[in-house]
């Protein structure tokens, strides 16, 4: 029986082109997410010249800008950052749900990692906690996820398909 092979990303082979798409709404929180993401990318060896930052009005506009970046720039990964804070109306559910679903669909459509760093929280206090205080910085977390996925996908490119490997072993 053939052993099960394992593949996982690392934070060593993360070089590539990254696009950070940022919602300006709630910028007092989101600015810290951007700082965390950029700092994390650069600390792990990504050249600052390979990081583009695109600003949009709010989380609702993130998917369209992400889609355009994927089509035009063709980055190795996109990092979407924003903050949707629950209010007294159903607006929160529509914006957060629509944004998250669209980002997930785009990731699959373009076969490119999209790290979702869009905070969906109940209060401004929760947002601040996730933007660099008590609960860490979710911008940093999103950048880490993007880098790990870039590394992982490079690993797929290096692996020989199983069918080809089996044919090589049989001399076919």
Automatic annotation (TrEMBL):
Recorded metabolic or biological pathway in which this protein acts: Cofactor biosynthesis; riboflavin biosynthesis; riboflavin from 2-hydroxy-3-oxobutyl phosphate and 5-amino-6-(D-ribitylamino)uracil: step 1/2
Keywords noted in UniProt: Riboflavin biosynthesis, Transferase
Reaction(s) this enzyme catalyzes, per UniProt: (2S)-2-hydroxy-3-oxobutyl phosphate + 5-amino-6-(D-ribitylamino)uracil = 6,7-dimethyl-8-(1-D-ribityl)lumazine + phosphate + 2 H2O + H(+)
Name of this protein: 6,7-dimethyl-8-ribityllumazine synthase
Subunit structure: Forms an icosahedral capsid composed of 60 subunits, arranged as a dodecamer of pentamers.
Keyword Transferase: yes
NCBIfam families in the cross-refs: lumazine-synth (TIGR00114), PRK00061.1-4 (NF000812)
Function: Catalyzes the formation of 6,7-dimethyl-8-ribityllumazine by condensation of 5-amino-6-(D-ribitylamino)uracil with 3,4-dihydroxy-2-butanone 4-phosphate. This is the penultimate step in the biosynthesis of riboflavin.
EC number annotated for this UniProt entry: 2.5.1.78
Active site (catalytic residues): 91
Organism field: Pistricoccus aurantiacus
Alphabetical list of Gene3D superfamilies matching this protein: Lumazine/riboflavin synthase
InterPro entries reported in the protein's UniProt record: LS, LS/RS, LS/RS_sf
Family: Belongs to the DMRL synthase family.
GO molecular function: 6,7-dimethyl-8-ribityllumazine synthase activity
Gene Ontology biological-process annotations: riboflavin biosynthetic process
PANTHER family per UniProt: 6,7-DIMETHYL-8-RIBITYLLUMAZINE SYNTHASE (PTHR21058:SF0), 6,7-DIMETHYL-8-RIBITYLLUMAZINE SYNTHASE DMRL SYNTHASE LUMAZINE SYNTHASE (PTHR21058)
Residues holding (2S)-2-hydroxy-3-oxobutyl phosphate: 88-89, 130
Cellular compartments per GO CC: cytosol; riboflavin synthase complex
Residues that coordinate or bind 5-amino-6-(D-ribitylamino)uracil: 25, 59-61, 83-85, 116
